[in-house]
Amino acid sequence: MAVEATVEPAGAAPRGRRPRRHAHVGATAALLSGPLLWTIVFFVVPVVLVAMYSVGFVTLLRDDQYNTLAFWRLFFSSSVYLNTPFSEGLFWRSVRMSLGVSVTCVLLSYPVAYMLALVAGRRKYTLLLVIIAPFLTSYLLRVLAWRVLLNPNGVIQTFLRDPRVGVLHEGQNIAWLYNSTFAIYFVLAYVWVPFVALPIFVALESLDLHLLEASTDLGASRWTTFRRVTLPLSMPGVIAAFVFVFIPTLGEYITPQLVGGPGGHMFGNAIQASFAESFDWQFGSAMSMFLIFAVAILLAIFGRYLNVRSVAAG
Amino acid sequence: MRGSELDVVLRNPATRRTFLRGMGVAGATGILAACRKSVEPGATGPASGAASYAPIEQEPGLLHAYEWAGYDAGWLYSNYTKSGYEKPKFSFFVNTEGALAKTAAGFGWDTDHPEVGYIQDFINLDAIVPWDTSLIPNFARLNPVLEKTGQINGQQYEIVLDWGYSGVIIRSDHVDPSINSYSYLFDDDLAGHISWFDSNWIIQMAAMVQGVPGNETFDMPPDQLEAAKNFCIEKGKNVYNIWTDYTQMWDDVRQGNVWAAYAWPDAYVNLKADVPVQYIRPKEGVLSWAEGLVLRNTTQDYHHAHQFADAWADAGAGLKLINVYGYGHANLDIDLSKVDPDVVKVFGLDDPQTNLSEPASFIDRFQPQRKAYNRAWEEVKASI
């Protein structure tokens, strides 16, 4: 009798643990509820509303169209906004810009992150702080600062025009330095490099150094060790870094506007103009939703190759 | 049509154009708007006419003015506060489209300050009522040419107060002033030194260069709009930049990067002492903007609003507006002997009725196809 009383069916939770599990579940739910509510109220609901507005399920203004796909049709049929990847459609122009900036950022950040994670030793966190220090300043101010530096009468070109330097003649400008695609890439790369360095740093820092030693012991050169061991193991960080830049710059509009000149009109600028200048909200909503879909698809694709834990937790 | 995005960052309090036309407005208003039901025509507040409103003594008295940054300066409505009324509460918008958006989303105000081209939009939102001009003593002194632009169906929906040209400023040491045309903004000979403003009025200017009468450019048939748009796209290669921040444009003109720019009168006032510039009111006729106060249909301070508008319409306020901002003022009794004679001459302030009348000038008006115009302008920008 006593034995029967103490035997528990296989798979059943031990007595005394059930309440703890309930408590655990309750605590998890409580912890999640805040962020979840926040996400629902300030992300999901607005996105759903914008989606509904783009097809006229929700209307706000007198001349809004009801239940229509006209704005989506207009968007997909316009050579201005979409067209083909090799055309001048604004979306693809933004994609090309984002790709260029993302690749540049990753290439520039990797050596920095490598140095911090594997070379800097005890000073690495101090140096990391120094690298991310620009984030203490407003994004907009950093972009504006570059305008002061790059413009034809800015610090750089004035310096180069100085007779003692003599690189430029009086009245001569470097046209590609300002109001140009180069300026957009350059400033965006500057803005994002510190941010991009972080996930790569985390990925490199979590490397098992014994693997590097083993590679050396087996006769691999430094370059081979980097190529065959370090780089593959840090790829989740590299992909995360790429995504961290690519997605926000895809909708970027303020930097192209400030330093890009007349050719700096991007997809984000078109969305901004639809809402803030043109009072063309339904069309702007369609463009916004398209951008969200595009980003979601990209995230899904990259997510297959991205081990979040290896980047975030080490 | 006007306003500056960068300025909201710079926080330059010097003029009302010191704001970005920023994404923030769009975002905030979008969320606000999303929470609001569809605007139902006819859902108005009190009917128009002073008789429908409580006497001024029974009004709350704290007027809510929705204004351009810089237009909260006390001297613009000093007669109002001198009369003992409480200083208005100010909210600011960065461009009229943003103000419309927030209004559509339910933002409350008593008076707003849109360009005349947007009056119809506010009426479409069922947001404003006509003024009772008999309650505004200074109204009789205001330029009738301008006040007519504030009327819809014979009712005075806007007390038009300030105005200016959207002409061209040129560096006269690089550009021949005798050409005297909007063609400066498209001239191949000035390639790389032209600055456009981020406005679909550039398309209208292109149409005027192509021979479309100025008054017809506000509502062009599709083929004309297409032709003007294509002309802009073709000439886009000549453009140094498309400015959104007027101080940026001033600097570019001052430094010689730009020789011909879309500009308001304030550019000339601010640059003429520094570099050789001329302000061009083109032979095609100059596009002009005018703006003033509109009255919210839900206002509880109907009489206060009229007192406020009267203070704004005062000649003393107008004189200071000209001298400080370089904009015109609708009051015809302004003592022009106290204004820089060059400014009076260049902007024709001594005969504003003639100079603001067609064909010398084409004052801003409602664009029935604004979305088509804006999309065409987007296409131009995307094609450069």
Shape of chain A: globular
User: Uncertain spans of chain B, ≥5 residues at pLDDT below 50?
Assistant: 1-48
Could you state the order of secondary-structure elements of chain A as H and E? Answer: HHHHHHHHHHHHHH
Shape of chain B: globular
- Elements of chain B, N to C (H/E): HHEHEHEHEHEEEEHHEHEHEEHHEHHEH
Radius of gyration of chain A: 26 Å
Through-space gap between termini of chain B: 21 Å
Arithmetic mean of pLDDT of chain B: 86
Mind sketching the topology for me?
The complex is a heterodimer of chains A (about 325) and B (about 375).
Chain A: H1 2-6, H2 18-54, H3 70-77, H4 90-119, H5 124-132, H6 139-150, H7 155-161, H8 181-205, H9 209-217, H10 222-250, H11 254-259, H12 267-276, H13 281-305, H14 308-312
Chain B: H1 6-10, H2 23-34, E1 64-68, H3 78-82, E2 89-93, H4 96-104, E3 111-112, H5 119-124, E4 128-129, H6 144-149, E5 151-152, E6 155-156, E7 158-171, E8 194-197, H7 201-209, H8 222-235, E9 239-243, H9 246-255, E10 260-263, H10 265-271, E11 277-280, E12 286-296, H11 302-312, H12 315-325, E13 328-329, H13 341-346, H14 352-355, E14 361-363, H15 370-383
Parallel strand pairs in B: 1-2, 1-3, 8-9, 8-10, 12-14
Antiparallel strand pairs in B: 3-12, 4-12, 5-6, 7-10, 7-11, 7-12, 7-13
Helix pairs in contact in B: 2-4, 7-8, 8-15
Mind explaining what this structure looks like?
The complex is a heterodimer of chains A (314) and B (384). Chain A is mainly alpha-helical and 314 residues long. Chain A is 69% helix and 0% strand. In chain A, helix 4 (90-119) crosses helix 10 (222-250), helix 9 (209-217) packs antiparallel against helix 10 and helix 10 (222-250) runs antiparallel to helix 13 (281-305). Chain A is globular, with a radius of gyration of 26 Å. The model of chain A is unreliable at 1-14 (pLDDT under 50). Chain B is α/β, with parallel strands linked by helices. In chain B, 34% of the residues lie in helices and 17% in strands. In chain B, helix 2 packs parallel to helix 4, helix 7 packs across helix 8 and helix 8 (222-235) packs parallel to helix 15. Chain B is globular and about 65 Å long. Chain B starts with 5 loop residues before the first helix and ends with a helix. At the A-B interface, helix 2, helix 6, helix 11, helix 12 and helix 13 of A face helix 2, helix 4, strand 9 and helix 15 of B.
